[in-house]
Specification:
- The chain has 3 domains: 134 residues, Fumarate Reductase Iron-sulfur Protein, Chain B, domain 2 (Orthogonal Bundle); 256 residues, 3-Layer(aba) Sandwich (Rossmann fold), CATH 3.40.50.10420; 54 residues, no CATH class.
- The protein contains 23 helices and 10 strands.
- Strands 1-10-7-4-2-3 form a 6-stranded parallel beta sheet, sandwiched between helices. Strands 8-5-6-9 form a 4-stranded mixed beta sheet, sandwiched between helices.
- The chain is α/β, with parallel strands linked by helices and 477 residues long.
- It starts with a helix and ends in a 6-residue tail after the last helix.
Length: 477
């Protein structure tokens, strides 16, 4: 599994690097997002103060996570929201299928939800005869092409308007070819509006769940989230168990830094706060609201004091926008639901560090992700920790797949290296040969092929440091 996944990542990354249109699309989009975010934080001190506050809120929420989840369930139940718990994606899918079948639902409209992507919910429901239509414009675009999101905030960021124009003219009935953005948006709106009216149920994600009030908060820009949650008679919300906060007051700073970090907006166009189904004196809203809380490895991550910081993530995507790897290869190269820096540490922890050992090394460890993360997740430190976990079996660690990324060839190489370093005479002989004859080693040699595949072959110095020290009369022991 380790070797197979590594080949997939390398092949897809190499393919992306050879696609000039893809790279141009990402370069243009990333430059724009980085500039917009920078404009929202002109004062570095104000930014750091907000980051410190947001980090403290998320850290405190995780510290009290078990109690907050219990309180959330009680508050939601009091409001008329039915709460369901799922340990695995399979359980969550079965729960949602059961809710839909109990109502005879055949058509589901979905607001944006990365957790539903994590569950592969659409494919599961379609296999059981239920249409699951994405109503977020970006999600709708990639659904037409049978693709997965390439960014957690902007799923179709890898496409430009010309590509979307061709796609709409081919995939939407009676659609004419146009490159006018407003007309393209209107085409999607005409399809989706009717789907909202015909839907038997709606599904959404949850940006923040407030334990004190039982409120589900949804951040969006298009209004599709509001249509998905208010027009159909049944609303199902899905969330990872880490999304809970204690009070409504704590939502405000998180919302402020989320929108600025994600899209460079002071506020999003819509901010929905859902506290229950339609009341007797209300004219709109769903008749039933259900909340599905998914674990899928999160409780295991939570149990480790260092790795727990992974769960602070508020899904803004800023780490992706600033990552030199992601901005060049795009999200699909990661072969994962969560791409980019946050995906490099989250996906291996969920699927196993041995299975996704490749993602742990898809980073230069430059630290750009940690510098911009609004909740200060130390992504490079966690990457280094997980790299070690992938090749060492620490009995005290609960990281899934620990030690399974280790290979026999690496073990032999390190044993040889250790043996050379322990014997000064052999080390001096090895360095003498390397400095005199290292130039003759071909770039295709197995020893350095992994390096020279993408880089210039290293040229050894003509003399070792010890030789230079001896020649200059200095100490060399």
């Amino acid at each position: 599994m380790h070797a197979e996944s590594e080949i997939l990542f390398r092949d897809s990354a190499a393919k992306a690097l050879l696609d000039p249109q893809l790279r141009a699309n990402f370069r243009r989009a990333m430059d724009g997002l980085v500039a917009k975010r920078r404009a929202q934080f002109p004062d570095p001190k104000d930014l750091q103060d907000l980051r410190d506050l947001s980090t403290a809120i998320r850290s405190r929420s995780l510290l009290n996570l078990p109690a907050l989840l219990e309180k959330l369930e009680k508050s939601c139940t009091k409001n008329g929201i039915k709460v369901h718990w799922a340990e695995t994606c399979e359980q969550a899918n079965e729960l949602i299928l059961g809710l839909l079948q109990a109502r005879g639902a055949k058509h589901l409209v979905k607001g944006k939800s990365m957790v539903s992507e994590e569950m592969h919910l659409n494919a599961f429901l379609e296999a059981h005869g239920i249409e699951a239509l994405e109503s977020d414009l970006g999600e709708y675009i990639i659904q037409l092409d049978g693709e997965t999101p390439s960014h957690i905030i902007m799923p179709a960021i890898h496409k430009n308007k010309d590509q979307i124009a061709r796609q709409f003219s081919q995939k939407i009935k009676d659609a004419k070819y146009t490159e006018d953005v407003d007309e393209l948006t209107a085409m999607a709106r005409r399809v989706l509006r009717q789907k909202f009216l015909d839907a038997d149920a709606g599904l959404s994600g949850v940006n923040f769940a407030v334990a004190e009030t039982g409120t589900l908060c949804l951040v969006e820009n298009e209004g599709n989230g509001r249509m998905s949650t208010h027009v159909p008679p049944l609303h199902i919300a899905v969330m990872g168990l880490e999304k809970v906060v204690a009070t409504l007051e704590e939502v405000a700073p998180l919302y402020a830094i989320l929108t600025r970090s994600a899209t460079g907006q002071a506020v999003s166009t819509y901010f929905n706060l859902i506290t229950g189904p339609r009341g007797n004196d209300e004219k709109d809203g769903p008749q039933e609201v259900h909340l599905v809380i998914l674990d899928n490895g999160r409780s295991r991550i939570y149990a480790d004091p260092q790795l727990r910081a992974t769960l602070r993530c508020i899904r803004c995507g800023a780490c992706m926008n600033h990552c030199p790897v992601y901005t060049r290869v795009g999200g699909h190269a990661y072969e994962a639901v969560y791409p980019g820096p946050i995906g490099k540490i989250l996906t291996p922890q969920i699927e196993g560090v041995g299975v996704r050992h490749d993602l742990l090394h898809g980073s230069s460890l430059c630290g750009a992700c940690a510098e911009v993360c609004p909740v200060e997740i130390p992504i490079p430190d966690i990457l280094v920790r997980l790299r070690r976990e992938a090749t060492h079996e620490d009995p005290s660690s609960n990281v899934v797949g620990k030690g399974t990324g280790r290979t026999a060839s690496e073990d032999r190489a390190w044993r040889i290296w250790a043996g050379v370093l322990k014997r000064p005479a052999i080390y001096r002989l090895a360095t003498w040969f390397a400095t005199r004859f290292g130039w003759a080693l071909p770039a295709s040699a197995p020893l350095i092929k992994s390096w020279t595949q993408f880089r210039t072959k290293p040229v050894p110095a003509r003399r070792s440091l010890s030789e230079r020290m001896r020649a200059e009369g200095g100490r060399h022991d």
